[in-house]
Amino acid sequence: MPVSRQRFARSTWSAWREWAAAIPAFVLLAVCLPQADAAELRSASTPQAAPVLPYRVPAAPMAGSRETGAQRMLEARIRALGEAFNGDIGIAVMDVDRGWTASFDGDSLFPQQSVSKFWVALTALDRADRGELDLYSPVTLRAEDKTLFHQPVAQQIGPNGYTTTIAELMTRALQQSDNTCNDAVLWRAGGPEAVRAFLRNKGLGGVRFGPGERLLQSRIAGMEWRQSYSNGRAFYTARAAVPIETRRAAMERYIADPMDGASPLGIVEALARLKRGELLSPGSTQRLLSIMSNTRTGPQRLKGGLAPGWRLAHKTGTGQVLGGVQAGYNDIGIVTSPDGRSYAVAVMIRRTGAPLGERMATMQNTVRAVIGYDQSVRGYDMARYRGPAASPSDGSDSYRDDGGEGGD
Questions:
Q1: Best CA proximity match to 11, nearest among 41, 52, 44
Q2: Which helix (H) or strand (E) is 93 found in, with range?
Q3: What are the tens digits of pLDDT across the range 246-261?
Q4: Strand duo 87-95 + 342-352: pairing
Q5: Is the model's pLDDT at 314 over the cut of 60?
């Protein structure tokens, strides 16, 4: 048996022994969720980032024996998924109503990439709630507003620009992960400092916010930004001319200390607070969740693990690749049951060379574990639930989830 499968078998058997010791037999029989095959675990400074507030895990409420058993089972399942994954991964789950969490490497900072668009939208909507930003005032994008990587809106910017609204730009930033749309919202909402101020004022710990898409991506590549890089494939051409040692050193600095880093536990706390209506007005809360419920990127990441009737509001993130290793492959969101119970979920991959299908399967199985926890607490027979089939090994998705860089 290969080393990777031996390790996977040991971690899985260890997890099952913990469950058997902690959970009544009827609960143990009630949950049997499929796991992703695992390969051998891989091991893997930017300018000084602003200090990040520590995340504080809230005290869990007292629970009955069934709920306690289900919690221990979910903890063991999340740990097994994390230990078996071929790369550096952080996973966190929070029961929105109870405030209870399960995690694997939940306190470490992981590169967010386009997950950070979530904080931009929160900041813009908060300013709109306070009467400081009109979401429907006309906005004209011009050539100097273009960024890099995934920016479909760039095709609409002609000699006279492209006129739209902040509301539309925010929707496209979240649903299509358009970098130029996101940067336009960011700067009209006050820039990176406004986002950091929002995080501080709301007491959201474990989250950093970077310098904006252009500076972030160019620094990861060991380059200085030039606006000419926003045209066509100019950035790729310039990056290819950077000595490989320079690129590798820059990426390693980013992975070790990401300027846009966030912890899985910090992320699920923010998602749960959004769902509970603690961050925005009721109208803005509903707007944001509705937009994220129609995200087009990553249909085979977290979303691929949903059972019939379950829903997901989410945001993906995908980083640059060097030498077959990707720095940042993420999905975060709120999973909601058919009768309205919600769970915040974050799966953040710092560094990996695993096939896309393996990454997606781990994300899907995290969602399946959450559904198993929910059904176990309610006494349902999860032996009947296997969820949708895992994605194919080539990781193909219906909308740009090809592991492409710096966009979705």
A1: 41
A2: strand 87-95
A3: 999 999 999 999 999 9
A4: antiparallel
A5: yes
